[in-house]
Amino acid sequence: MRKKIKKYLLILCGLLSIVLGIIGAVLPILPTTPFLILALACFSNSSPRFHKMLLNNRYFGAALQQWEQDRTITHASKIKAMLLVVLTFSLSITVLHGRLPLQLGLLTLGSVLLIFMWRLKETRVIPATIID
Predict the structure, then answer these.
(1) Phi, psi of 122 (to 5 degrees)
(2) pLDDT tens over the chain, length 132 residues
(3) Residues linked to residue 77 through DSSP beta bridges, in sequence order
């Protein structure tokens, strides 16, 4: 009985994480990737079907597969994510013109997020050599 409850709680947590990740794709303050990684972890322990669906998703499946295999991201993905953080947080800070405490809070949150992203390991891609 406890195993079933644990399984359903993990599935619920995974589904909630996916919803929050989708919302995070639209809102600059809510991150997408950590929620998708959390969903992946929840499903790996509760639902092989949902786990496989996440890994085979055409939008973020490849990145999740790479994360699951070696806990790295590509350099291009890292740069794109960091640029997106800078752009969205800059826009949010601009919109909050005149509200210095909120602007400083966003600046702090964005900086912490950028530092976290900067520290993520990147995939080492060996360039193909050209043979004449």
Answers:
(1) -105, 150
(2) 788 899 999 999 999 999 988 887 787 667 787 788 889 999 998 999 999 999 999 988 888 898 888 888 888 878 888 888 898 889 889 999 999 999 999 999 989 989 988 998 888 765 555 554
(3) none
**Beta pairing partners, 122:** 73
Residue 26: the pLDDT is 80
CA 28 – CA 31 distance, rounded (Å): 7
Instruction: Give CA separation, 65 vs 5, 45, 76, 82, in Å.
Output: 27, 16, 16, 20
Q: Which residue has the tokens 């400083």?
A: 104
SS (H, E, C) 20-59: HHHHHHHCCCCCCHHHHHHHHHHHHCCCHHHHHHHHCCCC
SS3 of residue 103 by DSSP: helix
* Tokens (6 digits) for 62: 């490849």
> How far apart, in whole angstroms, are the C-alpha atoms of residue 3 and residue 80?
40
